[in-house]
Amino acid sequence: MPRPGLSALLVTLIITLLLLGGCTLTSHKPLQVPTTKNAQSNLQWQSHQAQMEAFTQWRLVGKIGIRTDHESSSAHINWQQQQQQFRINLSGPFGQGAAELSGTFESVLLKIAGQEDLQTTNPEAVLLEQTGWDIPINTLLHWIKGIPSPDQDASFQLDAQGRLSRLTQAQWQLEYPSYRQLESLWLPKKIQLVRGQVKLTLVIKDWHYSSDNS
Prior knowledge:
Blueprint: H1 8-18, E1 32-34, H2 39-54, E2 57-67, E3 72-82, E4 85-91, E5 99-103, E6 108-112, E7 118-120, H3 123-131, H4 140-143, E8 154-158, E9 164-169, E10 172-182, E11 185-195, E12 198-209
Parallel strand pairs: 1-8
Antiparallel strand pairs: 2-3, 2-12, 3-4, 4-5, 5-6, 6-7, 8-9, 9-10, 10-11, 11-12
């Protein structure tokens, strides 16, 4: 049965995804392989990817849920991004168990109602301690906009409009069943992420430009 409010599992997974890949030094250029053979879709993808990479100041509102063999939990999410600075507010039903994550992908401050604040400049170590996953930083920032992280190998499929429909990266399987339009941009409306027995679903109700986004 789902637990009311926020679970430690959900907060930990949010940190996990924030700290996925991006700041690792690699000895090779990551291989980004689209499996779509349609030339028009591939051209549309190149344009869409460039738009998403330039979209660096935004806010989203939605709901996030996690399910494993042993637990399920959900939370409302409000995420504001300004270049490399982020602030993510999570809250359970009726505002229970509020949590806030803020900082950059090199330094994260975690505040949970009723607990001591946690700040770290070594997020990979916290991630390893909390989850046992030894993985680098920054992939969700790309995934949430519907593009692969440029710093890791990936394979993906495109839809007829040249947007991601499926993505495999960092041992996660992602599906993008729907998008919504924000002016000239097409942004994910729903994202499903699966790794082993962990399934994460993000439903985005609204995307907004930040006030100073050009």
